[in-house]
Amino acid sequence: MGADYTITSGGTSTDESMTLKWLTTGSRTVTVNYTSNGCAAASPASKNLTVIANAIISGQPVDPASICSGAGVVSMSISTIGAISAYQWQVSTNAGSTWSDISNSAPYSNVTTATMTVTNPPSGLNNAQYHCLATGTCGILTSNAATLTVNDPGAPTGTAAQSFCAIDNPNVNDLVVTGTGIIWYDAATAGSVVAGTTALINGTTYYASQTTGGCESDTRLAVTVTVADPAAPTGSAAQGFCAIDLPTVTDLIATLFNGTALQQEEQLSCHPMRWQMVVIMLHRLLVFVKAIQDLQ
What we know:
Immunoglobulin-like
């Protein structure tokens, strides 16, 4: 065995092949003498070759700091010694069972360089693993894997359909959801923030995210609102009664939009309408009745 190589396999009486590992670079001549049935070959076999340095990965990628879904930038890098002709980063979303090449499309960039960048990653990339293939003169080198952590608190919870009365002048602050740091939007993704003082519009869908630990949820809760504004009841603006009958407000007659006659206060409180307006109208009628009584 020479001073600048080792035999890694073969080179025995029963194995005519041999693998050498060179310890230094430069030009070499390999000469093989062989015998058969005790007789040496007339001339040994020789081969000239040049030993070049094999590239190595000297710095492995490390797990980047955790990042919020849809926000921020992280990078992963390798460093090498020796000539590298190409880089290719790959991703695995099944704990390293399979790997796929990454292209320069969102959220990735610089995927064919020693340093890859991930920008505004979605929550679906949480726990994704990445490694780099570096092509050297003597073959492809594979780096260790680094794991990406993407934090996403998840959408807030609440009723998807919520109803209000127009007479109450409801606004976005009246929508009921459970979560922290609620932000309302006019779209399921992207879109514009809707201020809490914005009046609710019948049939409109509003979208809520929540923010915890400095991270806003990647998904939003959709809430569709109904703002009811039923018509006022109808009835005679002037109704006459006899003082001897001791009339009260319950004797006044008003008709709902569906034709139902109201004569009892409990009917008003149970009907899905603006009963407050009805009471006002009945009060005015009562004042009118009292005026008639005073004239008698």
